[in-house]
## 1
Amino acid sequence: MPTSLRPQKTAVLVAQRIVADIQRRGNKAGDRLPPERVMLEEYNIGRGTLRESLRFLELQGIIVLKPGPGGGPVVQQPDGSGLATALTLLLQFENAPFRTVTEARTALEPMMAQLAATRMDDNQLAELKYSVDHMLDKVGDESVFLEMNKRFHDIIARNSGNALFGHLIETLLGMLDGTAIGVDYPEHRRLAVHKAHAAIYEALAARDPAAAASTMHEHILEYANYVERKFPDVLNAPISWTL
């Protein structure tokens, strides 16, 4: 017999209604939600349940609870931090190694580049070109290299026309921050990455989906092979949630 689904807590159901009402009203980041007394009456719940609902939404990055007189719940734009934490914890309890992330990127990022080739506009391409040029201009500065590397992949993912890809790449890049897990990027390696980024940019600027996908696949595979050769222990290390 199929197992019965566990009923959701009242606080979570109320949180879903609050989010639906935020969208229905067209609330934007910075807008205040109705005062507590209004929400208690509107949702026909107790103060404890409402506060649990609001705390849940705060943890998801939907609102921020401002203290003091004139405070209360304020809408904010959620980011990928909640997804990153949840996915990291899921993988940690699966004892998944960091290799999992590189394999996922090898599969996903060529598709993102393929889509972006026909969906990026000129302004987005210009932003991508800046990241490529600035990486080379500051090739001796590893912190700039890492920033431009993340920016390059983030721009492509977010402008692939698929919102899910943007959040996934932000999460995966955060989990596989090379310097944080022991991967070193000497200058010759940074130059190799820049060369790959330049080739991917040229394919995207030419609006060539096949070339964009293939050059991205080569780039991610080259990165995976580099880490495999130089830092095999890193790829085999289990993913863990760190602050």
## 2
Amino acid sequence: MNIHKVEKSNTVLTLVIIGNLDTNNSRLAQACIDDILTKDTHNEIEVDFSKVKFLDSSGIGALVYLYKRLIERERNMYIKNATGQPLEFMKLLRINQAISIS
């Protein structure tokens, strides 16, 4: 799994996740999440799921961790381009009630 950071503007940072966001890869994502929380100043974080085919509970945990920490810092996060199993899993767990999914 890879996470590419794409700066859309001074206020919006897009994280493009490439690969599965599962138990093994959630640990790898943690370094990127910590980097965003401590070094990044964008007000909005957009997580692009267009290249994610599988999401498990560890991946959900990583997303929720990022979301909570951003909210504490008065920053926003949303998920875009989620389809298939990742989208269905997020809906099943009602993640869309807390994090905007488009």
## 3
Amino acid sequence: MAFITLDSQKLAENYQRLDELFQEKNIQWAVVSKMLCGHRLYLEELIKLGAKQLCDSRLSNLKMIKSISEEVETIYIKPPPQEIIPEIVQYADISFNTEIESIRLLSEEAARQNKLHKVIIMIEMGELREGVMREEFMDFYEQVFKLPNIQVVGIGTNLTCMYGVLPSQDKLIQLCLYEQLVEAKFNREIPLVSGGSSVTIPLIFQNLLPAGINHFRVGETLYLGTDVYNNRTYERMHQDVFKLYAQIIELNEKPLVPDGNMGLNLKGEAVTFKDELRQKTAVRAIIDLGLLDVDEAHLQLADPKQKMLGASSDMVVIDLGTNEDGLGVGDLIEFKLDYMAILRIMNSKYIEKRLAPA
């Protein structure tokens, strides 16, 4: 069977590295936990590290977090669907918002539950995903401030996630200016300017982060040690917190080129082969993993001698060459994973989740 492992020690070392960086700059940070897909074992390891805020975009994951620790502050990091407003108020201490009608419903529900619900209002800064348009921003805040049982605790923006618009010093200065305008016009304190994410971290090292940015939401860099802005990895951070293993379920020497009339494969592709491969063979391993679990384009074999030949819904075929390592049926093939691979695998109920051996 296939399984993914989380290395608690490496995760702890990545967390410590980031925590030291943010503490040095007096920045509050929240861990984005959505990649863990609400898996209790992994969330428990994350909470053990001392994370004070966890962000997620799925209500069921916030429920799981609260079942582990009531003390962790939970943040729902997308505009809430109106039909689940009661559960948002119950399980999310803070929510990101862009629609005044949704905030009105949050206000009414918070009153029913005798709670004060906190909101961060997202502003559109060019990524064209969620965010109030800048020309409407002041009027939007004025309406929100009139609502009972709602506390505005921040202004935020999202960049990079959809179109890849990179954060810049100029954009983040604009975000800080909007926070100052709101405070000046309405005489209200806005504690958090949430302009940071994994892609914004390099601006800290370049001394380009505006002083007003005091809140980050970080996921990918914590789990993968990646410098998202420059598409590389940070020194002294681990890229292999997660590893994937799949068992060999068939092992045979077979031709490299299929035999028969060729049509389209499962993915709608017409596969072609070089003439020089005809009459050649290789040891081929079929493993217990498939497209139902992960897109093979986001996997990398840990052993450079091995090569992925293709995938179907439930199986991946690996070229072992001459199989010089003497692998057999029942042995494991190891993979390195990128962000999208981990996200898909964590969401697969068919892949077992384990902790790496200490």
